């Protein structure tokens, strides 16, 4: 059942996840749940379910795919974004790598531990800046998206709170203009205008389809 929840989350199957968690009582943190017994983890490893057995929780897979509706649901059900896998990767690091700015913003607002370091020793902010440098250090394209994500994670003010904590969720996914009224039909991202939406589409289209599928299965 734990494997089924992890697999369903990976595939963006909202309705199946709901049944497994709410009706069958499957632990929302999957193989990394404190209730998961070692003998079952060994069974998962021997059965070839290596990705789950390495400790990837449902939240890890959803952070990878960028399915924001399913991410919100899992966290509302007790999913812990501070549980990493056995390779010391965390949901927010995964979301950063895959450029899911909306997921990163929601994780920030959900109180994710932003001082948590991954296997490379980097905090989320340091990881985003490293990727920004790695992909050219420019303000456009892939590098530019990493820079915008890094800005959300950057500590501001005397309390050291991340900038994203004060950013509204309806911030443009491209240029970071706040309080945008133009919303993508999938309901997960906002834009200040058509030009930004067009620029973002190549990056967003896979997440767009996943989010629409999740919303449809929920109704």
The end-to-end distance, rounded to whole angstroms, is: 23 Å
Unreliable runs: none
Relative strand content: under 5%
- As laid out across the biggest beta sheet, the strand order is 1-2
The biggest beta sheet is recorded as: 2 strands, antiparallel
Number of strands: 4
Characterize the structure shown.
The protein has eleven helices and four strands. Helix 1 (2-10) packs antiparallel against helix 2 (14-23) and helix 7 (91-97) runs parallel beside helix 9. It has 219 residues and is mainly alpha-helical. The strands form two sheets. The chain has a two-stranded antiparallel sheet with strand order 1-2. It has a two-stranded antiparallel sheet with strand order 3-4.
List the helices and strands and how they pair.
Elements: H1 2-10, H2 14-23, H3 38-46, H4 50-53, H5 58-65, H6 68-76, H7 91-97, H8 101-109, H9 124-134, H10 141-153, E1 155-156, E2 161-162, E3 182-183, E4 190-191, H11 194-218
Feature tags:
4 strands, 11 helices, 219 residues, two-stranded antiparallel sheet
Question: What would a concise description of this structure say?
Answer:
This protein is mainly alpha-helical and 219 residues long. The chain contains 11 helices and 4 strands. The protein has helices spanning 2-10, 14-23, 38-46, 50-53, 58-65, 68-76, 91-97, 101-109, 124-134, 141-153, 194-218; strands at 155-156, 161-162, 182-183, 190-191.
